[in-house]
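Homework help thread (please don't just give me the answer)

Our assignment gives two proteins as sequence + structure token strings and asks us to describe the second one. The first is just a warm-up. Here they are:
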Amino acid sequence: MLLQLTEPGMTSLPHAEDVHKAIGIDLGTTNSVVAYSENGQPIVIKTRNGVSLIPSVVSYNEGITVGVDALDQLKQDPKSAISSVKRFMATPSKPVYQDKTPVEISADILTFLKAQAEQSLGQSVTHAVITVPAYFDDTARQATKDAAKIAGLTVLRLINEPTAAALAYGLDQGIEGIYAIYDFGGGTFDISLLKLTHGVFQVLATGGDTNLGGDDIDEKIVNHWFGPSENWRQHQLIARQAKEALSNHETWSDGKLHLDLQTLENLSLSLIEKTTQICSQVLLDANLGPDEIKGVVMVGGSTRMPLVRAHVAEFFKTDPLTDMNPDEIVALGAALQADGLTRGSNTLLLDVIPLSLGIETMGGIVEKIIPRNTPIPITLAQEFTTYQEGQTALKIHVLQGERELVDHCRSLGEFILSGIPSMVAGAARVEIMFAVDADGLLTVSAQEKMTGISQKVEVKPSYGLTEDDLIRMLKDNSEQGAADMQQRLLVEARVEAEGLIMSLESALKVDSHLLKLEEIAVLRQELEVLKETVKTNDRDQIELASKKLSENSQNFAAMRLNSSIYQQLVGKTI
């Protein structure tokens, strides 16, 4: 196969055929926004009522109602509509409202957004760039693409929300340096560090929480007013109204309920502090200090809160960039990317994967193939081998997470590579390849190099991370990293010892005639010592016993090799 090389910007556009106008969509938790680009300028599409924010609310009472009308129904009857469905995208096939799944509900929102765009542009719209939180996992990303397909949209690219915001802010226009994108929306929080060099956007590190956003501040307000509430949705809408009003006023009241700015800040402080804790971890991941960040772009409606802005300014030691509408900025960036994919762009986006990807090896150890914060798209491969004599199949168990042991990571799926020739342990060479595309979706393949047999799977797990799982995985890794490594080293020592026991016992069955009886007795005695030592948790003793047995069996190994060579050469002339 030949690889054709072209000058930058001269390659044919992969999505240019028959695409008149591609749109950018910010499919949000609380509100969604759709935009397009005209002559390089992104423009937000507004509804007939002149608003750009379309509530991500769907009602199925009489047909399908989306947006403001569905929100009005929700205010009247909290059981009449569904909102914040984005929070359920990690479990896309599980019904969450009237037997409707998150994918189906999201598809209805996207259908409505598509119709708004077509009405505004006066033409059919079939292609879109859709934004997702940087911390959406493979399941949620695939679910978003599935929803778009149902809505009649071809997804040109899934782009991370922080990256879209950076595009919209114009950080690709000759500005260089490292910028933080602080995205505090209705349902999720993301922080990404982007290095900008000559039009190249490289995400250095990303972090976040899939269950931290404005909805959680609303819940604090509702609990302050009512305690546990059966009419949660209705009360949340009032709480949101109060919260938004207090971005510009000191007090709020509807005659019955009251809230002042100081009380709101007291209620939300712990949540806002949680965002800067995540920022601190991301800076640590990137080996950077707050003083090395050139600017902080604020994204998401929750960043309108004065306390959020003050907290961010204090943490990064610089005033955040707030001169663009934080509710619209993500959709505007998506529109620019859509235009670039269909009409050409000099901007190169290098996003990263949020969590490490790897496979299970002997002893329940995770071998990471693609570390977290690796730029995508990426393809990496690693060779593995068989553990037992005559092994003809290999189970590939794909995992996601930062911990060292399988039990502490998330299973993405598994498949079997069969047809491996029967060989001695360690002789087979199996190449396992991980490929993550520009949308963050993973494909895993395995090939036995001697025979060429192969197997491939697109990893689309039937379930996603629960609401707190993702942030817990990173937190656990931070807290348990040292203990995990000690446990991994212990397991590795046991696996090596058990392999030595297995191979030596097999060799003694076949070639014990090469040894004297006293030599066999010594080896068998040391085998029993190692077997007993392996049962303990003393890694040093296991390694010491393994080393002693290995050294004492070297003469036996040499005898076996000489005998094998002799058998091969009998009756032959050199």
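The one we have to describe:
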Amino acid sequence: MKEEYWKEKLCVNRIQYAYMVLQARTKYAIMSRGTGKSFIVGAEVDENIRLMPRGITTIAQATIGQALTKTLPSTFKMLDMLGYKPYDYTTHSGDYVVCRTPPEGWYRPYERIMQYDHVISFSNGHCLYILTQEGNSRGPNADFNITDEALTINKTKFDQEVAPTNKGNEFIFGKRSSHPVLKHHGNCFLSSMPYTSEQNWLLDPAEYYERERGIPLFAKWNKMVNIQMSMIEAAIAHDNHLFADLWNECVRMRKEITPFVSRDQTLFILGSVFDNIENLGMQYIINQYKVMDKLSFMVEILNMRLDTIDHCYYKLDPEHHQYSNAFNDSFIRGMAEDVSFDWEQLRNIQDSRADLDCDPSQPLEICPDWGSRASFLTVYQERRYDFALRKASDRPVECLINEFFVRRDDETDTEINALADRFIAYYHHHPTKRVTMDRDRYGDARRANSRKSYNELFVDRLQKFGWQVRQRVHTGMEPPQHDKYLLMTLILTETDERFPQLRINATRCRHTLISMNNTRVVESNGRFEKDKSSERRKSVAPEEATHFGDTVDKHIWTKYGERLRKLHASFAPARV
């Protein structure tokens, strides 16, 4: 009789293979977009299920909405490839149930669980327990923790609430058992590259590279990123000889920073899109290079580490001016139950209904920036709620809730429509179809190949899809950099109650924060302005590094610049 068996071919890239082969108790994987972080989360879950039956793995997330729409759909896509199937109550077959009591006859975890609202149970008794910092932050004693999108969590709260739960079943899986599991009571942190100093706790463990083997990891990594940028440009120019030389140099440099496990059983690993080029192809990288501004590309795709700059133009305090993960958990949880936790449908929730900081009853405010090579758009709502401190505010709060951008390849209106269409699609379900646009005065200029300006084309596109557009414009062509700097500093320091507070959604507006945190201020004759010289030096900062910050300046100045002028007028010296 021929034996029937299930077979699935899985292809892993070099960084995934290194992560899986190198055994350690605690692992940090800082990987760019397109490198396969979701595969790693799924592989960790599968390994825990097999090594620790009836154990508990905690999934630490900022909110349940983030878990249901970001981490778990990708995780279960991987588990589905491994053969895991949701339990079917009709046929009594399947391997797991989501957020409900497991079927009769299934094993239960050693640590007793009273409620299963945040639990995914497997047939061998292993459980995934979803811990959220905006909800159930304390769970049962656990055997392992996985934190995906780790840069979005509050590390202090994690240490106080999540870390202490990682202490279960020492006599079953730990050092006191007859067959100890190396990874028991370990942690897995996965993230894209941090972009603020407060997120550097994710990078600090990499110090062992230099301490144990004398490898300056990030210096070598960033040098390799710069060579990869030159390699991409060579590919676009069809300079095959130069491309091959640069490729070989990157291969040599990659060997110099081969990952290894530290003496205290920690693994720190960096990965970029080039580690997954066999699956994605060079054309994918080139396409991303063309549609993204270079700073975003180097951070998001090539995983470049951003150095902290001195004398920053914006006095941003991450804990005070930024907030993360404003997910509308009630909407997402309700939709999850409506679709019976269909991971693919949950993954595709990509519109404003899932945003807690978007009030559907209020209009939106937008500010475009028509750059020479790319176009940018930021979205705002004025509220009376401080999302960073999670409490009502006694003065207006300018909430920067979203960002969009497209690359312009030539002088046509294609990119203008593309930018408008991204906004229109995301806010398709927003019932209040009214928007106030801070007009970019440079966008008023007529173009040789069009009868209309960029601003006119953009407004026409919004109106075509049912949006009422009110335009707002500041006086003059471009306000003085010094005055804009003073106004922004006044708002960020919050010393004058006549001006609003500014809060930025760090999850949705990541590129804006990268832009703002990498903009220097220069002083000349007692006056301040942005230092844009880095736009001409690839080795320091990429070409469009300041554009998103410019949209913030423009919005703030257009809306509040007159208040600053009146403030200056009130300090005029009295006549004697």
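TA reply:
I won't write it for you, but here's a hint about the kind of observation we're looking for: The two ends are 111 Å apart (CA to CA).
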